[in-house]
Amino acid sequence: MADxxxxxxxxxxxxxxxxxxxxxxxxxxxxxxxMVSDSLDSNIPFGIVLALPESYHEHEVPARVGTFARIIxxxxxxDGRYNLLTIGSERFEILEVRQTRQYLVxxxxxxxxxxxxxxxxxxxxxxxxxxxxxxxxxxxxxIGSEDREISIPHxxxxxxxxxxxxxxxxxxxKQELLELRSVSERLRxxxxxxxxxxxxxxxQLKSDLLGPRDGDRASLN
Length: 221
Description:
Blueprint (H helix, E strand, L loop, with lengths): L4 E9 L8 E6 L2 H13 L3 E5 L14 E12 L5 E17 L6 E7 L9 H22 L13 H11 L4 H9 L3 H28 L3 H7 L1
Parallel strand pairs: 1-3
Antiparallel strand pairs: 1-6, 2-5, 3-4, 4-5, 5-6
Helix pairs in contact: 2-3, 2-5, 3-5
């Protein structure tokens, strides 16, 4: 399957979708209404790809790697717009982009992680789970959520994509994570990103708990 070349609609967006990630979408442009209609009729998923910085309206330049979005629920509105609930499935690499329809179509090949039997993968996975738990705990505390039940997967690849979806880093960094073909390298990068993000959240939380300093209060008067 990974070696098969398939043709699928492409949906360039200012976001990166990861496998297993739920993504609601509001479809309003006529070209993408057609794309959704075609996808529903053919039961073929469309590929969500990051629109590169040189993109502009109706001349989007897609990143090389994206993720197929499968429609799991939808509502077609009276004026033809769609509200969709999609979930990321397989990653793919674009081999060729064509403008044969109102929207972009790509010849693509599904990609998977290449490595097997990694000696330190179990340790990396445990470290990543701990780092994600701490990051989410601080995030929930900072936003004042009372929900502390966090379900975190144990499977390494699934965990790596969950972390990537939770991170609030730049889209370019998320795209780098999506394109990696090594789950161990992806986890190592994510552990570092989580530690940095957790330190920043801890500083924000400490600042909120301490409140404004006297000098800060004086400057606001």
